[in-house]
Amino acid sequence: MFVGFTALCAQSQSGKATFYAKRATGARTANGERLHHDSMTCAHRTFPFGTLLQVSNPKNGKSVVVRVNDRGPFVRGRIIDLSWGAAKELGIIAQGVAMVEVKKVGSKHPVPFKDEEESLLPDLEIAVTSPPLFEEWKSEMEESQIEPSKALVPENDHKHLVKKKTESKFMEALERIKHFVVK
Fold this sequence. Notes:
This protein is an alpha/beta fold.
């Protein structure tokens, strides 16, 4: 008996595609992301997460590039589940189920999101032009000899513990910010 294997990345597939309903927005996918109906994502049984696939609708010639972030479909005869946005771009919303062609594309293909290595966080710059309001309020409370944690709290109110904790967290955060401020 002779068994031959072809690498999945070299294959293209033809078959039926379905799509997630809009109300599925917010559901967790198999890779842990939250689904959004406008995202260009899909579910595929075998391609690794993050693989970019070009899905084409042969009836109207439209195609879209999607990223695999879920597993499925688990219905016989179907090869891919698309996000609602990808299905809309392909023009298959009214049909519900449509014949499509799927093939793997390289990472250089234009997609509607940035690759992780390209997305760099911007530098954070903080400038303080006047003393923070909290410092002014605290100095006023010290001048009037009122403890800042009790200034706005009635004596029988048990929320003063929360205010005291919030005040200390605010002060800690303020101290951390001061290290980044350019004078």
